[in-house]
Amino acid sequence: MTVFNAFLKVIKKNLGTIILYTVIVVFFAAINSRTDDSSTQFVGEKPDVMIVNLDKGTELSGNFEKYLTDNTNKTEISGGDEAVSDALFYREISCVITIPKGYEKTVLEGKTPEIEIKSAGTQNSAFVKNIVSSYIRTQNAFASSGENKAEIIKSVNSALSQKASVAITSKLNTGALTKLANYYIFSSYGLMSCILFIICIVLTSFSETTIRKRTIISSMSYKKFSANLLLSCFTYALAVWILFVVLAYFMMGSIVFTMRGAAFMLNSFIFILTALSLSFMLSTFVPEKNAITGIVNVLTLGSSFLCGVFVPAAILPSWVLSIAKVLPSYWYVDSCNKLAEVENLRSNFMPIVINMGILIGFGIVFAVLGIIVSGKKRKIE
Amino acid sequence: MSDKKVIEVKNLVKEYKELRAVDDISFDVYEKEIFGLLGPNGSGKSTTINSILSLLKYSSGNISIFGKEMTPDAYDIKRDIGVIFQDVAVFQELTVYENIDYFCGLYIRDKKQRKQCIEDAIELVSIGDYKKFYPKQLSGGLLRRLNIACGIAHKPKLIFLDEPTVAVDPQSRNSILEGIKKLRDDGATIVYTTHYMEEVEQICDRIIIIDKGKIIASGTRENLKKLAKIEERITVEIKKMDKEKLEGFKKLEKVTDVSYEGHTLVVSFSGGKNNIANMIDHLRNNNFSYRRVYSERPTLNDVFLELTGKELRD
Ligand SMILES: Nc1ncnc2c1ncn2[C@@H]1O[C@H](COP(=O)(O)OP(=O)(O)OP(=O)(O)O)[C@@H](O)[C@H]1O
Ligand SMILES: [Mg+2]
């Protein structure tokens, strides 16, 4: 209890910082839900979409394009990649859908073609993703049963015309889900800041040479002390996590505790474990306490920008995203986006599990590095 | 002081790569004494203490405390030890009270008992007015006192203090020294390191003097003082002096050394009873205009000077 009490007092001393980060998250989440409310009015209308067909001239791609044109508001953006990227950023369009070269061939071979969808992260784009995946799946079902081109087109069109209303009023509440995903994505900034900042301060205090000497010479065994400290850190991280989940409930209601909501929760729980581990590693590296605020800010802001926490990952240049892959936040954000989009969670859960595995991997690497460095430091005698 | 041994150090050696920081040191510390470890900077005092406490892996030697071998996980021994390290070790985020509470809590779990202990510690070093202050807000002297309170709050039977008065104002220093004497009077055994002569003279019962990792002298302060060649030193403030007149002082009985600097004449005597009377006669007979005259007994500094040929303080 002694260790935990000291821990609590350090937290109390830094409560202002925690509140600040929490307020930032709540504030942005509130803004986020407002913008989405305004766009809800357009849900009934068709989303603005740019379609790029690289397989022009083939019947299957033609039919797909027509289907998309019927269900969306096809828009042309001239002026190259940059203009497209601007249009996405300013939400003039919801998505850019690219039908790849060799689309028809792939379908006829019974394989699933890769449709690239660059989205602006609005709920409209989630709707587009749904109709695309619904088309491709239906088409795939007929193609693999050995039908020829004309038969495929006929079957798909009739199947989809029956399903058209289903796709739109699908069980998936895309609007609320996008909101939830955005909240979880943004809360990663708050979680990371709160955990990194406090844990680093506490751990550097406790491991300061003189204080450590006092701890070692006391009658409490060092093992017990370390276990207490670790448990305290975990309890704190858990409390911060619960705070953010509860806030989510207040802002978004019962969706937080649905199956899908639980998947978001699990994802962010794994994220706090990684953040804990990262704080431990950082605390062994930081040269002095005064540097902590700076280091933590650079880390959290930097990784949040690179990994698409502040701006949707889809509109970031691809080189940024490839850098972001070395950061845990990238995988966390990726899972959130996937969780908001997939229609059938059960059959599409694998990529999310893999992302979680990568997060845990990061956690293990940080912990091992931290142990090595702190071990080296201790040997100076 | 009783004849019960609390610490026994036998042939302690601690080597850093090339340096023998502690070179074959042996000594005993008895119950309820204040044992002084005196030596200049870098002589190996802290290294000796850290080795005794098993905070350092020493190269060879035997150390027992309370009659038992001291090891890193001898928690029953550690329970009765309090250590005040040379560097202040407190949490910047905790107040004075909370700091003492934390360190005391590592030993004493019972809340009520701990509260009493904290109050006692605060009283001992007289920092009652600063309970709610954060370390940042304390002066150097008060910080040192807090550092001591953190080390002794759990009422240890054996207390190590490693230069607790470095860079401390006279008021805090006196408060600290008084506190240490009180701890001894309450039954604790104390090991005290310093490079200040006066402190050792003021509070220590027995002393070892170490230099370059070796014990160069040991005994009670009276024993040690006998090692100094001089017995008395007389200081006189004189406005003017020339070489010839200075030589005149050397002719006085039992004079070993004469020096004059900045209007101050210092004459050392190897013994004799009427030194001061002789001195004043001499001053009158030669028509010196002098102001203050005072006599000092030899200090441990003189002992150190005698033994090593250098001053204890730089
Ligand atoms: N970690 C270390 N590695 C190498 N040499 C060391 C180390 N720690 C201390 N020393 C050396 O050992 C010698 C004794 O140091 P120690 O700190 O014990 O002296 P001290 O008597 O406590 O001095 P001070 O009055 O300055 O505190 C010094 O020469 C010091 O340079
Ligand atoms: Mg020292």
Describe the structure.
The complex is a heterodimer of chains A (381) and B (314). Chain A has 2 domains: 2-36 and 173-380, no CATH class; 48-161, abc type-2 transporter like fold, CATH 3.40.1710. Chain A starts with a helix and ends with a helix. Chain A has 15 helices and 4 strands. Helix content of chain A is 72%, strand content 4%. In chain A, strands 2-1-3-4 form a 4-stranded mixed sheet, covered by helices on one side. In chain A, helix 8 (174-207) packs antiparallel against helix 14. Chain A is mainly α. With 314 residues, chain B is of the alpha/beta class. Chain B folds into 2 domains: 5-225, 3-Layer(aba) Sandwich (Rossmann fold); 232-297, Alpha-Beta Plaits. Chain B has helices at residues 45-52, 75-78, 96-105, 111-124, 140-152, 170-185, 197-203, 221-226, 243-250, 275-285, 300-308, and strands at residues 5-15, 20-30, 34-38, 60-65, 68-69, 81-84, 158-162, 189-194, 206-211, 214-220, 232-238, 255-261, 264-269, 290-296. Chain B has a 6-stranded mixed sheet with strand order 6-7-8-3-9-10, sandwiched between helices. In chain B, strand 12 (255-261) and strand 13 (264-269) form a beta hairpin. In chain B, helix 3 packs parallel to helix 5 and helix 4 runs antiparallel to helix 5 (140-152). The longest helix of chain B has 16 residues, at 170-185. Chain B starts with a strand and ends in a 6-residue tail after the last helix. The relative contact order of chain B is 0.14. The interface between A and B is medium-sized, with 26 and 31 residues. Adenosine-5'-triphosphate binds at residues 16, 19, 21, 39, 41-47, 86, 163, 195 of chain B.
